[in-house]
Specification:
Blueprint (H helix, E strand, L loop, with lengths): L8 E6 L5 E8 L3 E7 L2 E8 L7 E7 L3 E2 L3 H8 L11 E11 L4 E10 L2 E16 L5 E12 L18 E16 L1
Antiparallel strand pairs: 1-4, 1-11, 2-3, 2-11, 3-6, 4-5, 5-7, 7-8, 8-9, 9-10, 10-11
């Protein structure tokens, strides 16, 4: 006779005060400009006995973009880039998790930006869990990916003398996530 252990699916919410949603893009071909979004939210539905069945959903407030340069941020909010007025949210919903080893995974899902949805694959790392001083449970994850901004209809650019573009098409995305278990 075999017995099976049933594990509960738990909900975790992203703690935005201890998490970072960051991007990096080449500027004038040689330098890297980084920015982040200050307002975002998300949930993880995780069966700890079967983490490969996890479901992740997140939403980013486009107007919260911050590159440490107000005029650039205003340009990024415009229709040349994100059009925050017409498309106020960037969303992600996972479709599957592919374990690599005990700490690494591929998180596959649908990213929607400017009303364009594309599949993306994030390379993830589970950083661990800890009990906090207030009786809560926290978990941490890091995930990275790279997207083509043109595939999401973010096409503004200028060419520079000698070839090359002011802003690269490739955008590197890094997520440093701390999540709080909801019991």
């Amino acid at each position: 006779m075999t017995t099976s252990t049933k594990t509960a699916t738990r909900t975790w919410t992203i703690d935005p005060t201890h998490s970072i949603v960051e991007f990096a893009v080449k500027h004038f071909v040689v330098t890297t400009v980084k920015g982040r979004f200050r307002q975002f939210e998300g949930t993880l539905q995780v069966d700890e006995g079967h983490p490969e069945s996890a479901v992740v959903s997140a939403s980013i407030d486009v107007a919260s973009i911050d590159t440490n340069e107000p005029s650039r941020d205003a340009h990024l909010r415009s229709d040349d880039f994100f059009n925050a007025e017409k498309y106020p949210k960037i969303t992600f919903r996972s479709t599957r998790v592919e374990p690599v080893d005990d700490a690494h995974f591929k998180l596959v899902g649908e990213l929607t930006l400017r009303d364009v949805t594309r599949e993306v694959v994030l390379d993830g790392e589970y950083e661990g869990q800890v009990d906090d001083p207030w009786g809560g449970r926290r978990a941490a994850f890091t995930a990275t990916t790279e997207i083509s901004r043109k595939e999401f209809n973010v096409r503004w650019n200028q060419l520079i003398e000698g070839g090359g573009a002011v802003v690269s098409d490739n955008v590197k995305i890094t997520l440093e996530i701390e999540a709080i278990r909801q019991d």
